[in-house]
Amino acid sequence: MTPPRPSRVLLIGVSNPLGVEVARRLAPHVDYLFGCDLKDPISALEEMDFVHADTRHAVIGKLIRQLQVDTVVHLAVMVDSPHDQRSIHETDVIGMMNVLTGCSAPSSRVRKLIVKSSQAIYGAGPTDPSFFSEDMTNVERPASSVTRDLLDMEQLASEFALRNESCQVSVLRLGFRVSEDTTLARYLSLPVVPTFAGFDPRLQLLHEDDAADAIVRAVLGAHPGVFNVAADGVVLLSQAIAIMGGRAAPILPPYGRWMARLAMRALTRVEVQAHLADVIAFGSVSDGSRLEAAFGWKPVYSSRAVMDGLARGKDLEVIEAPSPPQEYELQVYLQRRRREARNGHRSVPILEAHK
Q1: The domain containing residue 57 runs over which residues?
Q2: Phi/psi zone of residue 20: left (φ > 0), alpha (ψ -120 to 50 degrees), beta?
Q3: Number of domains in the chain
């Protein structure tokens, strides 16, 4: 059965390139598109009404209810972030709780929830299987703080789906990406790349374009459940370094990776999070067959193609350059005028929704 077309969509987490690109692609398909984040989007989008809001506060629930949205796309999930562990936990776990509270309120009209998760939920270790399917998360073994937060976040989403059968919940575990602002890209772009002695792990990489496409397809389709969004193929760490024109330096000890992370930061000034250090040591590959079967689609770019694109110096972000402040203010003004004309009267600024 064809799902009802989303009409009023709220995108949570639109200040980054992925969020803005998802908004740009969704705009022609929905009647009302709202966006919220702590910071302004990096590029103005006239078709999206934007408001500053923080998922760590209960105000996000009020925003969901007052905007009468039928679809929530939760992208404000930190994985590759310079923030401290407490901030990441508050954003990923507490933020998820507040979003779900807003979606489950008696006055809520939300019938579809899409949550951005990450392949980092599997962690990485020496006894890992050849690939991870969606059912292979392990809450028993020691894990990085990011992996634990993702497990908690997805557990909250799963419990919400069981309690709210009228709301379709889709969780997308996006693969690791190497756009220019990611830690993994900065690490692989070093002229001399410190690696763990005796290890040459498999890397599976996801193009930003495919990540945005998967999210939009989840919004417009009917695909409840948990899905790996994984590219075809892998590249070995040594191959990735060679593609980038660098030289591998196997100088990091294979154990005591927290000490190795300190050494790497001192040598390269690249802060590698614990979960990424594990991936650099042991690799991580996930199975995307469930996504392909349900969506009738799979990522276009292979892992090798993603690395080749980065090596050619192409910006893998599919979004335009950041808008100058004057242009952004102009877009906001035009957006307000368009909304007033559509409603036939002077509209109440959306900013009042979270006062």
Answers
A1: 8-177+206-230+286-298
A2: alpha
A3: 1
Q: Write down the pLDDT at residue 170.
A: 98
Between helix 95-104 and helix 145-163 the angle, nearest 10°, is: 10
In the chain, which stretches have pLDDT less than 70? 1-4, 139-142, 180, 256-258, 314-355
Domain membership flag for residue 15: yes
User: 35: which 2 tokens?
Assistant: 């966006």
Burial 241-263 (b: 16+ CB within 10 A, else e): bebbebebeeebeeeebeebbee
- The pLDDT of residue 324 is 54
In a domain, 77, yes or no: yes
SS (H, E, C) the chain: CCCCCCCEEEEECCCCHHHHHHHHHHHHHCCEEEEEECCCCCCCCCCEEEEECCCCCCHHHHHHHHCCCCEEEECCCCCCCCCCHHHHHHHHHHHHHHHHHHHHCCCCCCCEEEEEEEHHHHCCCCCCCCCECCCCCCCCCCCCHHHHHHHHHHHHHHHHHHHCCCCEEEEEEECECCCCCCHHHHHHCCCEEEEECCCCCEECECCHHHHHHHHHHHHHCCCCEEEEECCCCCEEHHHHHHHCCCEEEEEECCCCHHHHHHHHHHHHCCCCCHHHHHHHHHCECECCHHHHHHHCCCCCCCHHHHHHHHHCCCCCCCCCCCCCHHHHHHHHHHHHHHHHHHHCCCCCCHHHHHC
Cα 192 to Cα 145, 247, 281: the distances in Å are 28, 5, 17
* Residue 218, domain CATH: 3.40.50.720
Residue 146's φ and ψ, nearest 5 degrees, are: -65, -45
- Decide if 259 is inside a domain: no
Q: Counting Cβ atoms within 10 Å, is residue 281 exposed (0-12), middle (13-18) or buried (19+)?
A: buried
pLDDT at 326: 56
C-alpha to C-alpha distance for 51 and 59, rounded to whole angstroms: 12
Q: What tens digit of pLDDT does each residue of 19-63 get?
A: 999 999 999 999 999 999 998 888 778 889 999 999 999 999 999
Is 353 contained in some domain?
no
